[in-house]
Amino acid sequence: MITYRVTLFHYDLDFFLAAICPAGQYAEDVTNVCKNCPLGYYQELSGSRMCRSCPNGQVTLQEGATSLEQCEGGYTLSCTLILISLFVFHH
Q1: Which residues pair with 4 in a beta bridge?
Q2: Residue 41: its H or E element
Q3: Which of 36, 60, 74, 77 is 20 to 30 Å apart from 67, CA to CA?
Q4: Which residue, 41, 45, 38, 44, is CA-closest to 20?
Q5: 1: pLDDT confidence band, cut at 50, 70 and 90?
Q6: CATH class of residue range 2-89
Q7: How far is Cα 19 from Cα 29, in angstroms, rounded to an integer?
Q8: Are 68 and 50 in contact (CB under 8 A)?
Q9: Contact, 32 vs 49, CB < 8 A?
């Protein structure tokens, strides 16, 4: 975090500038320090305060992912397939 102090009419004014983090990172709330997005998260934009979660249980292979395309694996469920399986195996 960058702090500026300005004196105006005998008053000290403090200005705090938030960190502008690059893609793949977010500004931590308490310390305002840039940190890599953790595994399973990504951030495509700079200046963000949080990372986006990979969908459907997907994960990233490294911290600091910068795009959804870096999310891999995971699962997808088909309700139709589940219903057919339940019907076939229980009748």
Answers
A1: 15
A2: strand 41-42
A3: 77
A4: 45
A5: very low
A6: mainly beta
A7: 10
A8: no
A9: no
Q: Is there a contact between 37 and 61 (Cβ–Cβ < 8 Å)?
A: no
Question: Which structure tokens are listed for 17?
Answer: 């500038």
Q: Could you tell me the end-to-end alpha-carbon distance of the chain, in angstroms, rounded to an integer?
A: 64
Q: Highest mean pLDDT range out of 3-7, 18-22, 87-91?
A: 18-22
CB atoms under 10 Å from CB of 36, counted, come to 16
Q: pTM value?
A: 0.63
Tokens found for residue 74: 């995971």
Cβ contact 64:37 at 8 Å: yes
CB 39 within 8 A of CB 49: no
Neighbours of 85 (CB within 10 A): 11
